[in-house]
Write a structure and sequence with these properties.
By secondary structure, the protein is an alpha/beta fold. It contains 5 helices and 7 strands; from the N terminus they run E-H-E-H-E-H-E-H-E-H-E-E.
Amino acid sequence: MYRVLIVDDEPNILTALRRCLSNIPPSMLDGERLELIPANSPEDALQLAVADNYDLVLSDLRMPGINGVDLLAEVAQRQPLCARLLMSGYADLSAIIEAINQAHVFRFIPKPWDDNDLRMAVVQALHYRALLVENQRLADLVRAQQGQLERQSAELRRLEIEHPGITHLKRDETGAIFIDEDDL
């Protein structure tokens, strides 16, 4: 299940967003469903983001108190793998640039939105997040394997120092280990 935090100070917008996003079929989300959590203020959203992890945060830009860019930047600090979308009814280019640079939003969505475009933006953001999570998992796996290889190499070096030649095997033409009687 994908957890999506929706933040807007207008209750009617929250209701419309929930209605729109609840229509995303699980087949578009790798069989998963959306759990939509509404927050009607950025302060409430921050409390929720401290208490729980989210896969996606969709926020309005202009709200009383904390604006959407600052909210999403704070979410990015706390949950770097959480996808972030920003919405606004104002075509404020400097705010959009700030959102991209400061909060690393995945996409800006204008209000009023097209339902299909919004659903696709959410699906794409969640797929992008899934790639980030998988990349993180693979990087962690590679680091663990490198650590294991380094420990094995150190052990081989130690054995070679204690018993010179022990790590160098001679093989015959069939690949079998060849033991030279002179070495015994």
